[in-house]
Amino acid sequence: MKSLGNIRRAFAPWTDPSAKPFIAFKNVTKRFGDFTAVNDLSLNIYHREFFALLGASGCGKSTLLRMLAGFEQPSSGEIVLDGTDLSGTPPYKRPVNMMFQSYALFPHMTVEKNIAFGLKQDGMSKDEMAERVSQMLKMVKLEQFASRKPNQLSGGQRQRVALARSLAKRPKVLLLDEPLGALDKKLREETQFELMDLQQSLGLTFVVVTHDQEEAMTMADRIAVMSHGKVVQVATPAEIYEAPNSRFVADFIGDVNIFDGKVTAASNGAVEISVESGFTVRTASAETPAAGAALGFAIRPEKIRVTRAAPANAAVNAARGELWDIAYLGDMTVFHVRLPSGKTVKASSLNAQRSVEDPFTYDQEVWVSFAEDGGVLLKD
Amino acid sequence: MGIFASRFYSRLVIIIPYAWLLLFFLAPFFIVFRISLSTTAIAIPPYEPVFSLADGWSGFWEKASTFSFDNYGYLTDDPLYFNAYLSSVVIAGISTFLMLLIAYPIAYGMAQAPRTIRPTLLMLVILPFWTSFLIRVYSWIAILKPEGLLNQLLLSLRIIDSPLIILNTSTAVYIGIVYSYLPFMVLPLYSSLEKMDGTLIEAAQDLGCTPIRAFWRVTFPLSLPGVIAGCMLVFIPAVGEFVIPDLLGGSQTLMIGKTLWNEFNANRDWPVSSAVATILLLILVIPIVFFQNAQAKAEERGR
Lengths: 380, 303
Prior knowledge:
The structure holds 2 protein chains of 2 kinds.
Chain A: E1 23-32, E2 35-45, E3 50-54, H1 61-69, E4 76-81, E5 84-85, E6 96-99, H2 111-121, H3 126-139, H4 155-167, E7 173-177, H5 185-202, E8 205-210, H6 213-219, E9 222-227, E10 230-235, H7 237-242, H8 247-252, E11 257-267, E12 270-275, E13 280-284, E14 294-299, E15 305-307, E16 318-328, E17 332-338, E18 344-350, E19 365-369, E20 375-378
Parallel strand pairs in A: 3-8, 3-9, 6-7, 7-8
Antiparallel strand pairs in A: 1-2, 1-4, 4-5, 9-10, 11-12, 11-14, 12-13, 14-20, 15-19, 16-17, 16-19, 17-18
Chain B: H1 3-36, E1 39-40, E2 47-48, H2 56-64, H3 70-77, H4 79-112, H5 118-126, H6 133-144, H7 149-156, H8 170-194, H9 198-206, H10 211-239, H11 243-248, H12 256-266, H13 270-302
Antiparallel strand pairs in B: 1-2
Helix pairs in contact in B: 1-13, 3-13, 4-8, 4-10, 8-10, 9-10, 12-13
């Protein structure tokens, strides 16, 4: 099978059936009164994995993280960490540490004391503690801020203190709740790469909760897309993006065009669909759906070409329309093409060259077309 | 608005509280202090010298030269005053500590209560103020006296065989002070506990603290400003308290407020009672000033 996208590193224990999961959620349900935050959820996370829980607010991702930390107890089901059932273990006895969204730094303590907090609680010797703290300060490059109080630090510095504090005890798993949410865009992007490097060099398991799909895609080995207390899809960022298993995931991650239609022909791993927008889609498919079945077809904007001339084979995967909007974003240009049916197709093209001869203008008649392997079928 | 005008207004804002202090604190204090330097006289007012504009400058200086610190010397001669000061500070100190012990759990419970019922709880704390302070203290007599409600209850429950003597003892004074001033301890504690970020406790637990350890390492240190404000708020008036020891403490309890009242009303010795008042003020103000200085310095170091 052709691989989807670029696999970041040769690390994929989830493809190995003999690999033992490090963290396992087994049929976990969490109810708050009438509200079911997490609904019969099962999920495996592997050792040294950078795992992201992604979803809109209220989807249960934070509850899942808080159950792992021990702040919430599952209503049913069990959570196993490194072979040990965590049920009934209070947060202060779990070998996991959490980096809070608000950082939750102790305002009455200096940076140094904040980092040493957990070590002191464990009764570590003074010398050892001092060494660990200075090691942590060095790791987050805050050596000269050791005796400052949290309110004398910038947002980015506080984030680093929180990170150092949660790593000081060398937990088996680091939980990060929206770790970069309070940082501005530039700093956030830098910090994403720092977190990845840190996770690699420490060899720890990171579980991060985020609502920011770009953040999840940048950092995580695998992403669990959550909705209404359930995991909709667990896969690598490339799989999630290129092969979403549902309309929800396709729509939630990145930009997408979804065409609905009915199967007209299916054979030899190829399916033809007559879509409501008035053209025929022909796409590769492992399954052979029955003729007449209602299906959706999802295709990303960058997989769609916009041309003035009709493509070589205009019978399938091509439609004529009017160029409705052009948005120049610098690195790429986004086109909105209005089809005769009224449907707007989003297409984007990379601005690989600095200048374009005869650029597109508004209200031109254009063709949109795409390759047979450009999109995926959606069953729901 | 011009810069000068804006500067004028910003000064004005600062001047108002200072003017208030000058008019209602410093000026009365100087009047009291001036009387404390005088001698008693059978006259109206009952001390001399009394200044009058008719004296002119020379008369003023002549009279002012009779000022003396004899009254302060008198206070040191008679151990009554030293004992009264000491016992006032001790009673106020113990009461403050008792209030802290009682008020902290109350304030903590209020701060942990669901947000919707917090205003009701706050209301309940303030509710006693709707009845006159004097009536509330008087009603403690009815509760504490030998044939009072408390003894009747304990006797009927056969917990005791003979009535407890509480009224007119220092126990009654402690009960009265703790009861009367408790809201002043609860409110600042509540306000400092209420705004505490709950995730700090979670963070402490996450880093290995049991709930009790988390309380002592995080909650309590962070509530210290409230603890200090509450202690000040109850300790200062409790030291000078007159009504409670007079009504509940009988003749047994020695407190400086009562001594002062006796000097002023029974003995009609305004100069000595003014000296008592002046010393009382110094006893209270000096530690506060030192404390605030230390706090400001600590704050400075933290920066």
